[in-house]
Write a sequence for this structure.
């Protein structure tokens, strides 16, 4: 891998996680309760919000979609 | 279950388990570093960071191998159920150890140049066409990303909001991560380290994982080969069913069925827990409720419903006993539908 390609890849990863952090913040401050009634208010204590933050950073495209489409957890 | 989310669902048993696990990890790291110094070849002089890189790397691989062995072994012996019950904790700790390993590698081998450490990781060895010189660190990096996604989505919030199917599919990525780690070790340290301990760790870990999965799969296939009685599937003789435990039946069509005995009652439910798809048939009956071995979710034997205030439901199945043999109807009832258990000593 060339240095230019590696720099592009690392920058893309950094950008991905930066956007993920923003989506994660949106989830921590109300977003989680929007897709899951059980996660509203005290249903999702601050320690749990911190715990789910990294996952939202990693899966933000999926979680951003859910933020606008999901009203309650999926039934399987 | 439908309740407020908790950070970690600790109970006294899980706390004791975690203390033992962390103690074992500390002991391994100290012993590994001490042995590294005691057995280093003449002329070599490892730094403490290099020793810790090896200690954390081998430990993460061994722990991941162990995690992958828990499921198959727990199907054959109840002694492994405590590990099954605590597998999530072991998994998260394994990722954290892998993260320490990766962090130390970045710091020690890529952190002292003007090039960005992550860029250096990808370009320091460009020989992708070589075996002995393959940039094995990249494989470990990808494996660590996969393990991160699994650890970061291990909380119940994720299972509820991704849905059990998507959640389980994501977590099956552990097999991809494991294959990448095998390649990471084989193309990495085994290319320049001649001491047998590293061959032994890789060989033992991979051999156990592959062999146990094969044995477990063959045993499952044998379970599906059951002679029926008027379309019902034979489960076992009554005396073969252990009290508070289950036998798992796998119909040719349809989901696996867990047939439980609790005293003189026999009842059958879906083998799949609604929480994270855990194997209910590997759990046991506690206070009249079928209890999942993974995270302790419970369902009543007579209707497959979680006791109030919880609302989860699983499918029930009809059972009957004829001449001391237990049979199950492979056609499921609706989740949560009442189904009276068969009673031993009462003919169908």
């Amino acid at each position: 891998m060339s240095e230019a390609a590696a720099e592009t890849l690392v920058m893309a990863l950094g950008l991905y996680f930066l956007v993920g952090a923003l989506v994660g913040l949106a989830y921590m401050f109300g977003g989680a309760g929007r897709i899951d009634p059980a996660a509203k208010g005290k249903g999702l204590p601050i320690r749990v919000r911190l715990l789910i933050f990294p996952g939202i950073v990693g899966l933000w495209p999926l979680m951003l979609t859910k933020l606008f489409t999901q009203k309650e957890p999926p039934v399987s | 279950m439908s309740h407020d989310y908790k950070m970690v669902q600790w109970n006294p048993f899980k706390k004791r388990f975690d203390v033992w696990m962390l103690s074992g990890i500390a002991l391994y790291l100290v012993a590994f570093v001490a042995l590294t110094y005691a057995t280093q070849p003449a002329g070599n002089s490892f730094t403490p960071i290099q020793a810790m890189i090896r200690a954390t790397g081998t430990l993460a691989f061994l722990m991941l191998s162990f995690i992958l062995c828990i499921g198959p072994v727990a199907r054959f012996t109840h002694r492994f159920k405590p590990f099954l019950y605590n597998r999530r904790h072991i998994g998260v700790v394994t990722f954290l150890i892998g993260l320490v390993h990766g962090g130390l590698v970045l710091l020690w081998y890529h952190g002292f140049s003007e090039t960005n450490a992550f860029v250096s990781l990808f370009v320091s060895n460009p020989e992708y066409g070589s075996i002995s010189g393959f940039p094995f660190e990249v494989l470990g990096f990808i494996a660590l990303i996969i393990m991160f996604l699994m650890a970061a989505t291990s909380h119940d919030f994720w299972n509820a909001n991704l849905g059990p199917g998507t959640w389980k599919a994501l977590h099956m990525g552990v097999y991809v991560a494991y294959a990448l780690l095998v390649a990471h070790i084989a193309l990495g340290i085994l290319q320049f380290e001649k001491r047998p301990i590293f061959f032994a760790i890789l060989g033992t870990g991979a051999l156990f994982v592959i062999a146990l999965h094969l044995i477990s799969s063959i045993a499952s296939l044998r379970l599906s080969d059951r002679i029926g009685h008027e379309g019902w599937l034979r489960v076992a003789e009554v005396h073969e069913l252990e009290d508070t435990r289950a036998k798992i039946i796998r119909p040719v069509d349809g989901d696996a069925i867990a047939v439980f005995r609790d005293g003189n009652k026999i009842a059958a439910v879906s083998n799949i827990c609604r929480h994270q798809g855990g194997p209910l048939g590997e759990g046991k009956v506690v206070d009249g409720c079928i209890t999942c071995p993974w995270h302790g979710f419970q369902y009543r034997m007579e209707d497959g419903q979680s006791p109030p205030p919880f609302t989860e439901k699983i499918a029930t199945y009809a059972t009957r006993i004829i001449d001391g043999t237990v049979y199950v109807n492979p056609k499921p009832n609706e989740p949560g539908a009442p189904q009276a258990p068969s009673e031993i000593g009462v003919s169908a």
User: Anything to note?
Assistant: The radius of gyration of chain B is 24 Å. Residues 54 and 101 of chain B are 8 Å apart (CA to CA).
